[in-house]
């Protein structure tokens, strides 16, 4: 993963149009173009960054988390104020390497696990580990 990029302490508001219309991923008909398009907006800072002073961004490098929807080049929104729990995705420093893995308990022992079967779980306790934060969101951009 790349170096840390900190979120601003008070990100400037940036409210963009966010219509009420829901978008379906299947084929169930099309909404009418005449549907009400109210002035509803969405500010991604407000939506994705709950605690600005404890939030930073990281960029994913590699394919170890593809099962969890994290692709090479994706941006992670990481919150260091959240107490890690099993099942959460963590950004951590393990034996001097910054990694992103899922925190799991296997046979009463904590592990950091990949989302790719090519990578073995990392047992905690055997390795030096410093948790940097819990991943709250993944930002994935499509090439255009």
TrEMBL record:
InterPro entries: LexA-like (IPR039418), LexA/Signal_pep-like_sf (IPR036286), LexA_repressor (IPR050077), Peptidase_S24_LexA (IPR006197), Peptidase_S24_S26A/B/C (IPR015927). It comes from the Bacteria. Signal peptide: none annotated. Pfam families: Peptidase_S24. The keyword Transmembrane does not apply. Residues 29-135 form the Peptidase S24/S26A/S26B/S26C domain. The keyword tRNA processing does not apply. Keywords: Autocatalytic cleavage, DNA damage, DNA repair, Hydrolase, SOS response. Belongs to the peptidase S24 family. This is LexA family protein.
């Amino acid at each position: 993963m790349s170096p840390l990029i900190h979120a601003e302490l008070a990100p400037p508001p940036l409210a963009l149009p966010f219509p009420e219309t829901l978008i379906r991923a299947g084929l169930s008909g099309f909404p009418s173009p005449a549907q009400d398009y109210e002035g509803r907006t969405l500010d991604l800072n407000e939506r994705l960054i709950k605690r600005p002073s404890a939030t930073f961004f990281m960029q994913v490098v590699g394919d170890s988390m593809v099962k969890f929807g994290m692709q090479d080049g994706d941006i992670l929104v990481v919150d260091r104020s959240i107490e890690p729990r099993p099942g959460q995705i963590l950004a951590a420093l393990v034996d001097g390497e910054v990694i992103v893995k899922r925190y799991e308990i296997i046979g009463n022992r904590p592990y950091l696990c990949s989302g790719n079967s090519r990578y073995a779980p990392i047992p905690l306790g055997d390795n030096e580990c410093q948790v940097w934060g819990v991943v709250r969101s993944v930002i994935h951009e499509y090439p255009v």
